[in-house]
Amino acid sequence: MLLKTLRENFHTSLKDDYPDTEIQSFFNLLAECFLKMKRMDVSLNLFMPISGKKEEKFENAIKRLKNYEPVQYIVGVTEFYGLPFKVTGSTLIPRPETEELVQWLIDDTKLKPETLSILDIGTGTGCIAVSLSKNMPSAIVYAVDVSKKALTVGKTNAKLNKVDVQFFELDILNWNNGSSNFAFENMRFDIIVSNPPYVRHLEKAQMSPNVLRHEPGLALYVEDDDPLIFYKTITEFAAAHLENNGQLFFEINQYLGTEMVQLLKDFNYINIELRKDIFGNDRMISGTRMS
Fold this sequence. Notes:
Rossmann fold, 7-stranded mixed β-sheet, two-stranded antiparallel ribbon, 11 strands
């Protein structure tokens, strides 16, 4: 089969499921992954023959896309904050909004002492921890997650990006019950950052099929009657493990900004700042632990 025919078949197979621009984007990603060809290379080599094995890869990708599996899981990699990250079905796919949280944290710490200790709670792919370590080479970065599979991915991404992040398994909801082997029980941090589960079940109707069917619910959902469960627990944890004047950073549910401000006030945090993301939604919050 010629590359031109392969591309045409790909578009035809998916035209009832996705917009044309998205199909083109999928094809470009898959061509780079399966054929090692950039978009311009494809345009210049439309009459190049494609082997049967490579055809099969595209056919399999079409089946997975028709089942609304995210293309990032199909190619096994995505980009975050200008860095490559491996992704699997055990981890959330990093979002642009989280890049904004990373940028805020980096900007906010430029005038602080070079050696900072940072803890990322619920690290998943390690995108926050790895990006911070890459851009703040003097910082000592730790990352925790309840999922062993996610921690394996995070460690892979740290190695891929040549940074030193220390990963630990921890169920943050049970950090203080005495049953968890908390590796840094007596440690204190300058910064704690987290993008914990925050999507209420009542909000599932607003989500796309690829998220609902394929991304890990463990990293996404909270009960409707206690949507701030992770934030309350992490804020309590931070009260015990943040240095005086240490900072707490969160990515948050866009509908719960007011509640998050009140939560930090209830724990006596100061300099509380709520920020919007590029789409104009309340998405990030920071507070400082009183000395």
